[in-house]
Design goal:
53% helix; alpha/beta; 19 helices; 3-stranded antiparallel β-sheet; 5-stranded parallel β-sheet
Length: 497
Protein backbone atom coordinates (compact mmCIF):
# COMPACT_ATOMS: atom_id res chain seq x y z
CA UNK A 1 0.00 0.00 0.00
CA UNK A 2 2.94 2.31 -0.57
CA UNK A 3 1.20 4.32 -3.30
CA UNK A 4 3.91 4.17 -5.95
CA UNK A 5 3.33 7.02 -8.42
CA UNK A 6 1.00 8.77 -5.98
CA UNK A 7 3.86 8.86 -3.46
CA UNK A 8 5.99 10.69 -6.04
CA UNK A 9 3.16 13.23 -6.43
CA UNK A 10 3.17 13.71 -2.67
CA UNK A 11 6.94 14.28 -2.53
CA UNK A 12 6.71 16.82 -5.37
CA UNK A 13 3.90 18.66 -3.59
CA UNK A 14 5.81 18.80 -0.28
CA UNK A 15 8.97 19.93 -2.12
CA UNK A 16 7.17 22.78 -3.91
CA UNK A 17 5.58 23.93 -0.63
CA UNK A 18 9.01 24.10 1.07
CA UNK A 19 10.53 25.76 -2.00
CA UNK A 20 7.80 28.44 -2.07
CA UNK A 21 8.45 29.31 1.58
CA UNK A 22 12.18 29.83 1.04
CA UNK A 23 13.60 33.14 -0.15
CA UNK A 24 15.71 32.25 -3.17
CA UNK A 25 17.09 34.07 -6.20
CA UNK A 26 16.50 31.15 -8.54
CA UNK A 27 12.84 30.12 -8.42
CA UNK A 28 13.44 27.37 -10.98
CA UNK A 29 16.19 25.61 -9.01
CA UNK A 30 15.33 22.94 -6.41
CA UNK A 31 18.06 22.51 -3.79
CA UNK A 32 18.66 20.10 -0.92
CA UNK A 33 16.97 22.60 1.41
CA UNK A 34 13.71 22.14 -0.45
CA UNK A 35 13.54 18.38 0.00
CA UNK A 36 11.15 17.40 2.87
CA UNK A 37 12.31 15.15 5.66
CA UNK A 38 10.84 11.70 6.25
CA UNK A 39 9.00 13.09 9.29
CA UNK A 40 7.44 15.87 7.19
CA UNK A 41 6.32 13.39 4.53
CA UNK A 42 4.76 11.25 7.26
CA UNK A 43 2.84 14.31 8.50
CA UNK A 44 4.61 14.14 11.87
CA UNK A 45 5.82 17.73 11.87
CA UNK A 46 4.78 20.04 14.71
CA UNK A 47 2.00 21.63 12.66
CA UNK A 48 0.21 18.29 12.43
CA UNK A 49 1.23 16.87 15.78
CA UNK A 50 -1.98 17.79 17.64
CA UNK A 51 -4.00 14.79 18.75
CA UNK A 52 -7.41 14.22 17.24
CA UNK A 53 -8.85 14.50 20.76
CA UNK A 54 -7.50 18.05 21.09
CA UNK A 55 -8.70 18.94 17.59
CA UNK A 56 -12.19 17.67 18.47
CA UNK A 57 -12.21 19.46 21.80
CA UNK A 58 -11.32 22.71 20.04
CA UNK A 59 -14.58 22.46 18.09
CA UNK A 60 -17.57 24.12 19.74
CA UNK A 61 -20.68 21.97 20.27
CA UNK A 62 -21.25 18.62 18.49
CA UNK A 63 -21.25 16.68 21.78
CA UNK A 64 -22.76 13.49 20.35
CA UNK A 65 -20.55 13.50 17.25
CA UNK A 66 -17.45 13.91 19.41
CA UNK A 67 -18.53 11.06 21.67
CA UNK A 68 -19.17 8.80 18.65
CA UNK A 69 -15.76 9.60 17.18
CA UNK A 70 -13.98 8.92 20.46
CA UNK A 71 -15.76 5.55 20.68
CA UNK A 72 -14.82 4.84 17.06
CA UNK A 73 -11.16 5.71 17.72
CA UNK A 74 -11.09 3.50 20.83
CA UNK A 75 -12.57 0.60 18.87
CA UNK A 76 -10.05 0.95 16.04
CA UNK A 77 -7.21 1.02 18.57
CA UNK A 78 -8.63 -2.21 19.98
CA UNK A 79 -8.74 -3.71 16.47
CA UNK A 80 -5.05 -2.86 15.97
CA UNK A 81 -4.14 -4.50 19.29
CA UNK A 82 -6.28 -7.53 18.40
CA UNK A 83 -4.39 -7.99 15.13
CA UNK A 84 -1.08 -8.02 16.98
CA UNK A 85 -2.51 -10.58 19.41
CA UNK A 86 -3.67 -12.71 16.45
CA UNK A 87 -7.35 -12.24 17.39
CA UNK A 88 -9.64 -12.54 14.38
CA UNK A 89 -11.80 -9.39 14.15
CA UNK A 90 -14.37 -9.19 11.31
CA UNK A 91 -13.41 -6.73 8.58
CA UNK A 92 -14.90 -3.30 9.30
CA UNK A 93 -16.75 -1.19 6.77
CA UNK A 94 -15.13 2.23 7.19
CA UNK A 95 -17.21 4.35 4.78
CA UNK A 96 -19.34 6.98 6.54
CA UNK A 97 -22.36 9.29 6.26
CA UNK A 98 -22.46 12.78 7.80
CA UNK A 99 -25.97 14.24 8.05
CA UNK A 100 -26.94 17.74 9.11
CA UNK A 101 -27.59 21.29 7.98
CA UNK A 102 -24.95 23.55 6.39
CA UNK A 103 -22.46 25.21 8.73
CA UNK A 104 -22.56 22.48 11.39
CA UNK A 105 -18.88 21.54 10.98
CA UNK A 106 -19.16 18.46 8.73
CA UNK A 107 -16.16 19.40 6.56
CA UNK A 108 -14.05 20.40 9.58
CA UNK A 109 -14.79 17.08 11.30
CA UNK A 110 -14.07 15.21 8.05
CA UNK A 111 -10.53 16.65 8.08
CA UNK A 112 -10.10 15.47 11.67
CA UNK A 113 -11.44 12.04 10.72
CA UNK A 114 -8.86 11.88 7.90
CA UNK A 115 -6.07 12.54 10.43
CA UNK A 116 -7.57 10.05 12.87
CA UNK A 117 -7.74 7.33 10.21
CA UNK A 118 -4.16 8.10 9.17
CA UNK A 119 -2.90 7.94 12.76
CA UNK A 120 -4.71 4.61 13.22
CA UNK A 121 -3.15 3.19 10.06
CA UNK A 122 -6.48 2.80 8.26
CA UNK A 123 -5.38 5.10 5.41
CA UNK A 124 -1.87 5.81 4.18
CA UNK A 125 -2.02 9.58 3.66
CA UNK A 126 -3.45 12.32 5.84
CA UNK A 127 -5.48 13.89 3.05
CA UNK A 128 -9.07 14.84 2.36
CA UNK A 129 -10.30 15.24 -1.21
CA UNK A 130 -13.44 17.43 -1.18
CA UNK A 131 -16.00 17.29 -4.01
CA UNK A 132 -19.74 17.73 -4.42
CA UNK A 133 -22.06 15.11 -5.82
CA UNK A 134 -22.47 17.03 -9.07
CA UNK A 135 -18.67 16.95 -9.62
CA UNK A 136 -18.91 13.21 -10.34
CA UNK A 137 -21.52 13.46 -13.10
CA UNK A 138 -20.71 14.07 -16.77
CA UNK A 139 -22.84 15.94 -19.27
CA UNK A 140 -22.81 13.32 -22.01
CA UNK A 141 -22.98 9.55 -22.42
CA UNK A 142 -19.71 7.89 -21.40
CA UNK A 143 -18.36 10.85 -19.40
CA UNK A 144 -19.56 9.99 -15.88
CA UNK A 145 -17.64 6.76 -15.16
CA UNK A 146 -14.22 8.21 -16.15
CA UNK A 147 -14.98 11.44 -14.27
CA UNK A 148 -15.94 9.55 -11.09
CA UNK A 149 -12.96 7.22 -11.47
CA UNK A 150 -10.62 10.21 -11.77
CA UNK A 151 -11.94 11.64 -8.47
CA UNK A 152 -11.56 8.23 -6.80
CA UNK A 153 -7.97 7.89 -8.06
CA UNK A 154 -7.17 11.31 -6.62
CA UNK A 155 -8.53 10.25 -3.22
CA UNK A 156 -6.79 6.86 -3.02
CA UNK A 157 -4.70 6.61 0.11
CA UNK A 158 -6.91 9.13 1.93
CA UNK A 159 -10.53 10.21 2.40
CA UNK A 160 -13.01 11.22 -0.30
CA UNK A 161 -15.55 13.71 1.10
CA UNK A 162 -18.65 14.04 -1.11
CA UNK A 163 -20.77 16.99 0.02
CA UNK A 164 -24.40 17.32 -1.11
CA UNK A 165 -24.20 13.63 -2.03
CA UNK A 166 -28.00 13.52 -2.43
CA UNK A 167 -27.51 15.38 -5.76
CA UNK A 168 -26.54 11.93 -7.09
CA UNK A 169 -30.19 10.85 -6.81
CA UNK A 170 -31.43 10.43 -10.43
CA UNK A 171 -34.35 12.79 -11.11
CA UNK A 172 -34.99 11.78 -14.73
CA UNK A 173 -34.66 8.58 -16.77
CA UNK A 174 -31.83 10.25 -18.69
CA UNK A 175 -29.75 11.04 -15.58
CA UNK A 176 -26.12 9.84 -15.52
CA UNK A 177 -26.00 9.75 -11.72
CA UNK A 178 -26.72 5.98 -11.63
CA UNK A 179 -23.43 5.44 -13.41
CA UNK A 180 -21.59 7.57 -10.82
CA UNK A 181 -23.14 5.60 -7.93
CA UNK A 182 -22.33 2.26 -9.59
CA UNK A 183 -18.71 3.33 -10.10
CA UNK A 184 -18.48 4.52 -6.49
CA UNK A 185 -19.96 1.32 -5.05
CA UNK A 186 -17.53 -0.84 -7.02
CA UNK A 187 -14.55 1.23 -5.83
CA UNK A 188 -15.83 1.22 -2.22
CA UNK A 189 -15.69 -2.58 -2.33
CA UNK A 190 -12.69 -3.27 -4.58
CA UNK A 191 -10.50 -0.56 -3.04
CA UNK A 192 -11.91 -0.52 0.52
CA UNK A 193 -8.41 -0.90 1.95
CA UNK A 194 -7.13 2.06 -0.07
CA UNK A 195 -9.54 4.90 0.76
CA UNK A 196 -12.59 5.89 2.82
CA UNK A 197 -15.66 7.68 1.44
CA UNK A 198 -17.68 10.16 3.53
CA UNK A 199 -21.09 11.11 2.08
CA UNK A 200 -22.54 14.35 3.52
CA UNK A 201 -25.76 16.35 3.24
CA UNK A 202 -29.16 17.19 4.73
CA UNK A 203 -30.74 14.49 6.96
CA UNK A 204 -33.91 13.84 4.97
CA UNK A 205 -32.24 13.93 1.56
CA UNK A 206 -29.38 11.70 2.72
CA UNK A 207 -31.81 9.11 4.09
CA UNK A 208 -33.45 8.98 0.66
CA UNK A 209 -30.04 8.78 -1.03
CA UNK A 210 -28.84 5.82 1.07
CA UNK A 211 -32.11 3.92 0.48
CA UNK A 212 -31.65 4.45 -3.24
CA UNK A 213 -29.23 1.55 -3.65
CA UNK A 214 -28.98 -1.47 -1.29
CA UNK A 215 -25.35 -1.92 -2.34
CA UNK A 216 -24.58 1.58 -1.12
CA UNK A 217 -26.34 1.13 2.23
CA UNK A 218 -24.51 -2.14 2.92
CA UNK A 219 -21.12 -0.45 2.48
CA UNK A 220 -21.80 2.36 4.99
CA UNK A 221 -20.24 1.49 8.33
CA UNK A 222 -20.90 4.62 10.38
CA UNK A 223 -23.43 7.45 10.43
CA UNK A 224 -22.86 10.74 12.29
CA UNK A 225 -25.64 13.28 12.77
CA UNK A 226 -24.59 16.91 13.18
CA UNK A 227 -27.09 18.90 15.26
CA UNK A 228 -27.71 22.61 14.68
CA UNK A 229 -25.86 24.92 17.05
CA UNK A 230 -27.68 26.40 20.03
CA UNK A 231 -27.70 30.17 20.54
CA UNK A 232 -25.05 29.80 23.27
CA UNK A 233 -22.82 27.80 20.94
CA UNK A 234 -23.22 30.41 18.17
CA UNK A 235 -22.16 33.08 20.67
CA UNK A 236 -19.12 31.02 21.61
CA UNK A 237 -18.20 30.56 17.93
CA UNK A 238 -18.40 34.31 17.36
CA UNK A 239 -16.31 35.13 20.44
CA UNK A 240 -13.69 32.62 19.34
CA UNK A 241 -13.49 34.30 15.93
CA UNK A 242 -13.05 37.70 17.61
CA UNK A 243 -10.35 36.29 19.89
CA UNK A 244 -8.53 34.60 17.00
CA UNK A 245 -8.50 37.92 15.14
CA UNK A 246 -6.58 39.50 18.03
CA UNK A 247 -9.52 41.58 19.24
CA UNK A 248 -11.63 41.62 22.42
CA UNK A 249 -15.32 42.31 23.03
CA UNK A 250 -16.83 44.25 25.93
CA UNK A 251 -19.49 42.69 28.17
CA UNK A 252 -22.26 45.14 27.19
CA UNK A 253 -21.65 44.18 23.55
CA UNK A 254 -22.06 40.51 24.47
CA UNK A 255 -25.58 41.23 25.72
CA UNK A 256 -26.58 42.43 22.25
CA UNK A 257 -24.86 39.46 20.61
CA UNK A 258 -26.84 37.11 22.87
CA UNK A 259 -30.12 38.67 21.68
CA UNK A 260 -29.08 38.25 18.05
CA UNK A 261 -28.18 34.58 18.40
CA UNK A 262 -31.33 33.73 20.38
CA UNK A 263 -33.45 35.45 17.74
CA UNK A 264 -31.90 33.71 14.73
CA UNK A 265 -30.61 30.34 15.97
CA UNK A 266 -33.74 28.32 15.11
CA UNK A 267 -34.42 29.93 11.74
CA UNK A 268 -34.42 27.22 9.07
CA UNK A 269 -31.30 27.17 6.86
CA UNK A 270 -29.74 30.05 8.81
CA UNK A 271 -26.28 28.63 8.17
CA UNK A 272 -25.16 27.83 11.74
CA UNK A 273 -21.41 28.57 11.87
CA UNK A 274 -21.64 30.54 8.63
CA UNK A 275 -24.21 32.78 10.27
CA UNK A 276 -21.65 33.57 12.97
CA UNK A 277 -19.26 34.51 10.13
CA UNK A 278 -21.91 36.83 8.72
CA UNK A 279 -22.51 38.51 12.08
CA UNK A 280 -18.75 38.93 12.59
CA UNK A 281 -18.45 40.56 9.18
CA UNK A 282 -21.22 43.02 10.01
CA UNK A 283 -19.58 43.80 13.37
CA UNK A 284 -16.31 44.58 11.60
CA UNK A 285 -18.13 46.79 9.08
CA UNK A 286 -19.73 48.84 11.87
CA UNK A 287 -16.49 48.84 13.86
CA UNK A 288 -14.63 50.28 10.85
CA UNK A 289 -17.23 53.03 10.37
CA UNK A 290 -17.02 54.03 14.03
CA UNK A 291 -13.31 54.82 13.57
CA UNK A 292 -12.12 54.27 17.14
CA UNK A 293 -8.63 55.09 18.40
CA UNK A 294 -8.47 51.62 19.95
CA UNK A 295 -9.39 49.33 17.07
CA UNK A 296 -8.75 46.18 19.12
CA UNK A 297 -11.90 46.51 21.25
CA UNK A 298 -15.43 45.69 20.03
CA UNK A 299 -18.06 47.63 21.97
CA UNK A 300 -21.85 47.89 22.08
CA UNK A 301 -22.09 50.39 19.20
CA UNK A 302 -20.34 47.93 16.90
CA UNK A 303 -23.04 45.25 17.25
CA UNK A 304 -25.69 45.42 14.50
CA UNK A 305 -29.36 45.42 15.45
CA UNK A 306 -31.62 42.45 14.72
CA UNK A 307 -33.42 44.61 12.16
CA UNK A 308 -30.13 45.31 10.36
CA UNK A 309 -29.30 41.62 10.16
CA UNK A 310 -32.76 40.67 8.88
CA UNK A 311 -31.92 42.68 5.74
CA UNK A 312 -29.11 40.21 5.05
CA UNK A 313 -31.38 37.17 5.42
CA UNK A 314 -33.40 35.89 2.46
CA UNK A 315 -36.56 35.59 4.58
CA UNK A 316 -35.83 38.73 6.58
CA UNK A 317 -38.83 40.66 5.27
CA UNK A 318 -41.18 38.22 6.99
CA UNK A 319 -39.51 38.29 10.39
CA UNK A 320 -40.86 39.97 13.51
CA UNK A 321 -39.11 43.17 14.50
CA UNK A 322 -38.52 42.66 18.25
CA UNK A 323 -38.40 46.43 18.72
CA UNK A 324 -42.10 46.56 17.83
CA UNK A 325 -43.18 44.01 20.46
CA UNK A 326 -45.20 45.85 23.12
CA UNK A 327 -45.46 45.14 26.86
CA UNK A 328 -49.00 43.93 26.18
CA UNK A 329 -47.67 41.41 23.63
CA UNK A 330 -45.06 40.21 26.12
CA UNK A 331 -47.64 39.77 28.87
CA UNK A 332 -49.94 37.76 26.61
CA UNK A 333 -47.02 35.58 25.46
CA UNK A 334 -45.90 35.00 29.07
CA UNK A 335 -49.45 33.98 30.07
CA UNK A 336 -49.69 31.62 27.10
CA UNK A 337 -46.31 29.89 27.61
CA UNK A 338 -46.63 29.61 31.40
CA UNK A 339 -50.05 28.03 30.80
CA UNK A 340 -48.41 25.27 28.74
CA UNK A 341 -45.63 24.73 31.29
CA UNK A 342 -47.81 24.71 34.42
CA UNK A 343 -50.33 22.23 33.01
CA UNK A 344 -47.45 20.02 31.90
CA UNK A 345 -46.01 20.26 35.41
CA UNK A 346 -49.35 19.34 37.00
CA UNK A 347 -50.24 16.42 34.72
CA UNK A 348 -46.92 14.67 34.05
CA UNK A 349 -44.71 12.97 36.62
CA UNK A 350 -41.66 13.90 34.53
CA UNK A 351 -42.49 17.21 32.82
CA UNK A 352 -39.17 17.33 30.91
CA UNK A 353 -39.26 21.10 30.42
CA UNK A 354 -35.93 22.43 29.09
CA UNK A 355 -36.90 26.08 29.14
CA UNK A 356 -39.75 28.60 28.90
CA UNK A 357 -38.89 31.70 26.88
CA UNK A 358 -40.53 34.89 25.68
CA UNK A 359 -37.52 35.91 23.63
CA UNK A 360 -38.90 36.49 20.13
CA UNK A 361 -37.29 34.47 17.33
CA UNK A 362 -36.91 34.85 13.60
CA UNK A 363 -39.11 31.77 13.22
CA UNK A 364 -42.10 33.99 14.02
CA UNK A 365 -42.43 32.69 17.56
CA UNK A 366 -42.94 35.30 20.28
CA UNK A 367 -42.17 32.58 22.82
CA UNK A 368 -42.29 28.83 23.38
CA UNK A 369 -41.77 25.99 25.85
CA UNK A 370 -39.01 23.53 24.92
CA UNK A 371 -39.43 19.95 26.14
CA UNK A 372 -37.14 16.95 26.49
CA UNK A 373 -38.03 13.95 24.35
CA UNK A 374 -39.90 11.93 26.98
CA UNK A 375 -42.48 10.12 24.82
CA UNK A 376 -42.66 6.33 24.81
CA UNK A 377 -43.46 3.92 21.98
CA UNK A 378 -47.06 3.50 23.18
CA UNK A 379 -49.35 5.85 25.11
CA UNK A 380 -52.43 5.29 27.23
CA UNK A 381 -55.72 7.13 26.79
CA UNK A 382 -54.93 9.19 29.90
CA UNK A 383 -51.52 10.13 28.50
CA UNK A 384 -53.03 11.28 25.19
CA UNK A 385 -55.77 13.30 26.91
CA UNK A 386 -53.18 14.98 29.13
CA UNK A 387 -51.08 15.79 26.04
CA UNK A 388 -54.15 17.44 24.47
CA UNK A 389 -54.64 19.49 27.65
CA UNK A 390 -51.01 20.69 27.55
CA UNK A 391 -51.46 21.69 23.89
CA UNK A 392 -54.63 23.63 24.70
CA UNK A 393 -53.20 25.16 27.90
CA UNK A 394 -51.81 28.25 26.14
CA UNK A 395 -55.16 29.44 24.81
CA UNK A 396 -56.87 28.27 28.02
CA UNK A 397 -54.54 30.52 30.03
CA UNK A 398 -55.33 33.44 27.71
CA UNK A 399 -59.05 32.77 28.26
CA UNK A 400 -58.63 32.84 32.06
CA UNK A 401 -56.31 35.85 32.22
CA UNK A 402 -57.44 37.97 29.26
CA UNK A 403 -61.10 36.99 28.81
CA UNK A 404 -60.53 35.38 25.41
CA UNK A 405 -57.74 33.91 23.29
CA UNK A 406 -56.12 35.12 20.07
CA UNK A 407 -55.15 33.19 16.93
CA UNK A 408 -51.49 32.64 17.88
CA UNK A 409 -52.16 29.09 19.10
CA UNK A 410 -53.02 27.53 15.73
CA UNK A 411 -50.14 25.01 15.83
CA UNK A 412 -51.20 23.96 19.36
CA UNK A 413 -54.77 23.46 18.19
CA UNK A 414 -53.60 21.45 15.18
CA UNK A 415 -51.57 19.12 17.40
CA UNK A 416 -54.48 18.63 19.82
CA UNK A 417 -56.90 17.98 16.94
CA UNK A 418 -54.61 15.37 15.36
CA UNK A 419 -54.35 13.47 18.65
CA UNK A 420 -58.14 13.55 19.16
CA UNK A 421 -58.64 12.40 15.56
CA UNK A 422 -56.29 9.44 16.04
CA UNK A 423 -58.04 8.52 19.30
CA UNK A 424 -61.37 8.52 17.44
CA UNK A 425 -60.52 6.89 14.10
CA UNK A 426 -57.42 4.76 14.81
CA UNK A 427 -56.88 3.95 18.50
CA UNK A 428 -60.44 3.02 19.55
CA UNK A 429 -60.22 5.44 22.50
CA UNK A 430 -63.41 7.48 22.00
CA UNK A 431 -67.14 6.99 22.73
CA UNK A 432 -67.57 5.80 19.13
CA UNK A 433 -66.10 2.45 20.14
CA UNK A 434 -63.20 0.23 19.12
CA UNK A 435 -63.78 0.18 15.37
CA UNK A 436 -61.10 1.70 13.15
CA UNK A 437 -62.61 4.31 10.83
CA UNK A 438 -60.57 4.87 7.68
CA UNK A 439 -61.31 7.91 5.51
CA UNK A 440 -64.79 8.69 6.89
CA UNK A 441 -67.14 10.39 4.41
CA UNK A 442 -70.69 11.67 4.38
CA UNK A 443 -72.64 11.27 7.60
CA UNK A 444 -69.78 9.31 9.22
CA UNK A 445 -67.39 12.23 8.63
CA UNK A 446 -69.75 14.48 10.60
CA UNK A 447 -70.02 11.90 13.40
CA UNK A 448 -66.22 11.72 13.62
CA UNK A 449 -65.90 15.52 13.55
CA UNK A 450 -68.42 15.87 16.40
CA UNK A 451 -66.58 13.26 18.49
CA UNK A 452 -63.22 14.98 17.95
CA UNK A 453 -64.70 18.32 18.94
CA UNK A 454 -66.33 16.75 22.03
CA UNK A 455 -62.91 15.45 23.19
CA UNK A 456 -61.27 18.85 22.57
CA UNK A 457 -64.02 20.82 24.35
CA UNK A 458 -63.94 18.55 27.41
CA UNK A 459 -60.13 18.80 27.62
CA UNK A 460 -60.32 22.58 27.18
CA UNK A 461 -62.84 22.97 30.00
CA UNK A 462 -60.79 20.79 32.37
CA UNK A 463 -57.61 22.72 31.47
CA UNK A 464 -59.33 26.03 32.26
CA UNK A 465 -60.29 24.66 35.68
CA UNK A 466 -56.69 23.56 36.33
CA UNK A 467 -55.43 27.05 35.49
CA UNK A 468 -58.07 28.77 37.63
CA UNK A 469 -57.06 26.59 40.60
CA UNK A 470 -53.38 27.45 40.05
CA UNK A 471 -53.78 31.13 39.13
CA UNK A 472 -52.15 32.58 42.24
CA UNK A 473 -49.06 30.40 41.79
CA UNK A 474 -49.03 31.11 38.06
CA UNK A 475 -49.01 34.86 38.71
CA UNK A 476 -45.66 34.50 40.42
CA UNK A 477 -44.15 32.48 37.54
CA UNK A 478 -45.48 34.94 34.94
CA UNK A 479 -43.85 37.87 36.76
CA UNK A 480 -40.51 36.03 36.96
CA UNK A 481 -40.69 35.15 33.25
CA UNK A 482 -41.49 38.77 32.31
CA UNK A 483 -38.49 39.88 34.33
CA UNK A 484 -35.95 37.26 33.15
CA UNK A 485 -37.42 36.53 29.68
CA UNK A 486 -36.37 32.87 30.05
CA UNK A 487 -36.60 30.30 32.86
CA UNK A 488 -35.85 26.60 33.35
CA UNK A 489 -37.99 23.81 34.82
CA UNK A 490 -36.14 24.20 38.13
CA UNK A 491 -36.98 27.92 38.22
CA UNK A 492 -40.60 27.13 37.32
CA UNK A 493 -40.91 24.67 40.21
CA UNK A 494 -39.17 27.05 42.62
CA UNK A 495 -41.56 29.92 41.83
CA UNK A 496 -44.73 27.83 41.47
CA UNK A 497 -45.65 28.04 45.13
Amino acid sequence: NFGNGRFVDKVIQETIIKHSQRDTESIELITVEDIPSIEEINNEDTEDSESTEKLLNDIIGLKEVKEQLKNFEAFMQFVNKAKKADIKIPKQNMHMVFTGNPGTGKTTVARIVAKMLFDLGVIHENKLVEVEGKDLIGQHVGETAPKTTQVIEKALGGVLFIDEAYSLIPHTMYSFSDEAITTLIKAMEDKKDQFVVIFAGYRKEMAEFIKLNPGLASRIGYTFDFEDYSSEELEEILYKKIENSGMTIEENAKTKVSKIMKYFCRVENIGNGRFADKVFQEILMKHAKNNYDDILVINEKDIPSIEEITKLISEGNYMINPEEITDKDLKKTAVHEVGHAVVRLLLFEKPGIKKITINAEGTGALGYVMYENTSSYTQSKEYLLNTIKVSLAGIAAEKVYLGDFENGGTSDLKKATNIAKSMTTTYGMSDLGLARIDNPTGEMAKVVYDEINKILEKCFEETIELIKESKTKMDNVINILLKNKEITEEELIENFK
